[in-house]
Write a structure and sequence with these properties.
The chain is α+β, with helices and mostly antiparallel strands. The protein has one domain. It has five helices and six strands, in the order E-E-E-H-E-H-H-E-H-H-E. The strands form two sheets. The protein has a four-stranded mixed beta sheet with strand order 5-3-4-6, sandwiched between helices. It has a two-stranded antiparallel ribbon with strand order 1-2. It is globular. The relative contact order is 0.24.
Amino acid sequence: MSNKREEGEAGGKGIKPARDVVGAIVYAVLLKPFGKLPESWQRELEASHPGARRKAAVIYVGQTRLPAEERFSNHLEGYKASAKVRRYQQQLIVLDRWRPELPFAASPRLVKEVYLLARRSRVNPAQREAAVAELFRRAGFYVYSS
């Protein structure tokens, strides 16, 4: 099973999943701290996350058939990329491994629930992405999701 590189939208090369890859994973990207984001986006995040703490992490949640590292690479290269991830990314958070290493404090229950939703599965990836985003939101984080 090897993934294939393809010409990206911004002229770079992107990675596409091999045809034999089954199911999708949910992944996350830690974005810049809230105070370092543009004020317009800060206002938007505050309005949509009334329960978030001012110093809470800002997290992008997405889903892919690729390994998380390859999808993150595509974001950085501009291939099927989120502009906000490309501009404000700090660190990839691989969620589909048991005991993902989260760069912020999180309860063991949250970690387990996120892992169970994030691991490779054929179950509707958009629903699982939304569920992971909601778990992070309820835990008090700012979440951006496609």
